[in-house]
Each structure stands twice: as structure tokens, then as C-alpha cells.
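ok trying again, last paste got cut off:
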Amino acid sequence: MYWWRSRNLIINESGVMELIFTKEDFNSFRSWLNFDLDAITWEGKFTSEFEEFWSIFFYPDIKFTDLQSRFRYALRIIKTGTLNSWILWINEKFYCYLFIKKNLTLLELSQITGMSYSYLGVLLRNFFVEKFPQYTNELNENFHIADATSDNLKLSYLDIKQKLNLSDDISSKKIEDHGPEVDDIMTSTEVTLYPEWKIFLHALKRDAQTKFIDYKKIQNKKSFKDFFKFLREVILICSFALVLIYGLKYANSYYEKYLTERIGIYEPEFLWLDKNLTYKQEATDTKKIEADLKALEELAQASQSTDMEFKPEERFDTESEVVLTSVDKISEDEDIRPKDPTVYEESGEGYRDTSQGISKVYRVLMKSVTPLDVREKLNRIITQYGVTQVDKVKPGTIIPGGIYYNLHVPKIKLQEFLKESSLVTEATLYESRIRNPGPPGKVKVFIWIKGL
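nice, full thing came through this time. structure:
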């Protein structure tokens, strides 16, 4: 084993370079961090807790590998984001401190810390750019590590200081005494106020009273505790579910028994009925019944008035509907064609306002993807031709499946109305006959707009 006492460097039996830190090194590092203790300890209220943390975490005469295991331990234990970031910030600044105060090369720093030289190059580059922004290009060039053969791996802080001629720069003197800037938020973060700080300090006192932390053993112990906690929760949930199921089953059985006792089915019992009794059937007088029926018929004929005689209703067989292939065929219909008023003089029974009416009705079936647009166009046509509604249903009423119209169209405008309406969208025209004609001079038209 070889000692390089000038920088506390040793090479262990495995040939790995290690660094041992003394109490003076940690005191120097704490001064270099430029902490605002009043802010961190909340005006000195938690000074003792912070000092206890520092003395336990940065144990004197400790190797860097053991110190690095403490950082991993802290980052594993702490869950609060701010505390976790604060520990990570101290860890990164410790790399910068070693590079500056111990005058290590990038290659030596990578071997000691176990971190990749590319990561350390970026970390140191960002740190120095904050201090010397005027040398950004030069720092980018010096800390750029392309591969393991790069000459920049052999550069130390003194080499960079000499290359950039920082000997007389005030910032170079400050960087050796105080690393972070005064306005760095991490130097004054009130970490001791977080509730998790006490939990972390308690765990640190329990596990890190010696130089070496068996991180693997602690991790296994924590994993076992987590598994035991999970198993306990599963057992509790299963137990609660079983108790709930059996409780519901018992409650249902009890309630079923209760209802059985409270509710009874009663059947009629005719105990008083004497089954030995028999009923004697009387003889039926057929002649007497026939005489009574004959008397009833004579009475009905005598009381019936001649005015009340039954007159069979004249029935009309409904003709089958006819599909019109063209609206022009309507003008050929004798029932629709205008006639001389004398033709409509009454010649039989009926009322005057319907005897001159038309006994045909027209149905227009329309199909459209946008039935509301078709309705707007039809409303304009209805207004143009003076069409009126038949019943109380307003023309254009929306019903399930489409839009419905029941209209009276002047017969002199029927052909033009149907022709213009059929051009609005795809339409099929049906003609059928009705028993009761409509008002004189008007034709009944049904329009049905089916939405697709």
C-alpha cells in the first residue's frame, strides 16, 4: 500500500486509487460551501441538529468510497424533493471541491469517484462558467471530453488556471475560498424545518455511527420491512373481507328466519261444510222457456220505431295507393281538373261544404340526410302558395323518425306546389282515394320527411 500524503491519496491492494479525508478537510469543505447557517437552522433554533448531522455524515478519516455510500444512503432514505435536491447539491459540489482544492486531474477524479469523465466534465464546465462567464468558449474546449484518449483528462485546476491566466483574477481567488455564489438558494435552504429532517437524522444516527455503512445490508433490511408491511396490510384486508362476508351471511339468515316467523300463509278451511249434503236438480220446462223468448221478440218488434230502423251503411272499398311517376299526370285527373260550378250542384244527400270537395289525397314521402334544411325550404314554398294546415298540428312538426305535414292545398295550385316540393329533395308521390271529401277547392296533401 502506497501513501501520497500530500493529497491524502492511497492505492489499495486492488490497485484502485482512494482518497482519505480528515476532519480539517470537512471543515474546509463546509467553509467552502459558504452556508448561511442562520437561514438553514432557522435563526439558530436547530443549530444542534445541523451540527449533529454534519459530524455524523462527514465522519473523520473516512474513505471516499464510504462517504459516497453515505450520499447514496441519504438519497435513498429522503423522499422530500427539497431535501433530496439539497443532498444531491452537496454531493456535486464535493466533486468540484476535490478538483479545485486537491488539484486532481479529471482522470484521477473519475477513478476516485467512480463517475464517468464525461459527466464530471459537464459538471465542472457548468460550475466554472458561472464563475467565469467571459471564458465560456475556452472552458467548453478544456472540459470537452470526446473519448478516453482526450488530453483534457490530464488537466487539473492549476493547469486551467494557468491556461486562462486566472492568477490575478479576483474570481479565481474567490473560487478557492468559496465555491457557490452568495445568492445560491441551496446555501440558505431551511432544510432543518422539514418534518422528514428529524426522521433522516434519526436513521443516520442509527445506521452511520461508524465509518462504514453496509448499504447492501440496510437495503435488504428495508426491503424486508417493506415486504412485511405489505404482507400485514394484505392479511388485514383479507381478514376484514372475510368478517364482512360472514357477517352479511349471518345477517341474511337471521333476517330470513325473522320474516318466516312474521309472515304466514293462510288457506281457507271449510270445516263447517257438510259433505253429505246433496242438491236436487229441478226439472226444466222447455215449453215455458220458448214461450218467454217469443214474448220478448214480440215486445222488441212493437217498441221499435220506424224511424229507428237499421239502415246499412254504404261502404266504399279503399282503393290501393297509386305511385305517380310524374306530377304532370295530376292535370289529367277529372276529379282535380277545374270545372264549372254548376257541376257541383247538390244531387243527393250530404252537406254543401263537402259535396263539392275532392275525394283524392296525395302523400309525398321525402328522404334527406338534413331534414331540417328541407323543412326550411318547404316552409317557404307553403307560404308562397297559400297552403293552410288541416288540423291543430303545426306544419313541420318534428316527430320520432322525421318531420310531418298535414296540409290543404288550393287545387288550382296543386300541380305547381307538388312539382316544386318534389324538387327540394328525393321524393316519391302517392295518390289514394278517401271516403269523405275535403273542403271545396282544396286538396289534402300529407308530407313526410324521413331523416336518414
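cool. Residues 215-262 form the longest helix (48 residues). The first strand starts at residue 2 and ends at 4.
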